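Appendix B, Record 12. Input sequence as logged:
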Amino acid sequence: MIRGGHSVTLKTTLGVKVIWDGDSYAEVSVSPSYKHKMCGLCGNYNNIENDDLTGKNGVLYLDSESFGDTWQIGRKKASCARRSNHVTHLPAVPEESACTGSRNRKLRAQAKCSIFQSEAFSSCKAVVDVKPYVR
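Logged structural output:
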């Protein structure tokens, strides 16, 4: 995990990179080994831009709102990994964390990570165990 400015970057050994500003911006990138193995809100990584709005149900949508609604968690669990019978688990965050060092650093990290324990992520917690990431 790398911290720069007010963002956190997580690079995994699986070739997944996540940059998060702690608020409203997130960027996810994957290695070329994921080509033709992706689906979801970020497209399907097959270099055909016209089919990136394919919903969870396999239907191609013309508007992004309807497309996004198909991936909403709550009504049905969204997971292309489940659909293809291939589940990839991201590795847990290493033991060294943002909570070590100074008291202020620990308090800031706890405040930022508390969002994952909130009601906003209740549907997600049913699918992904957030404890290793919060730790």
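The CA atoms of residues 5 and 102 lie 17 Å apart.
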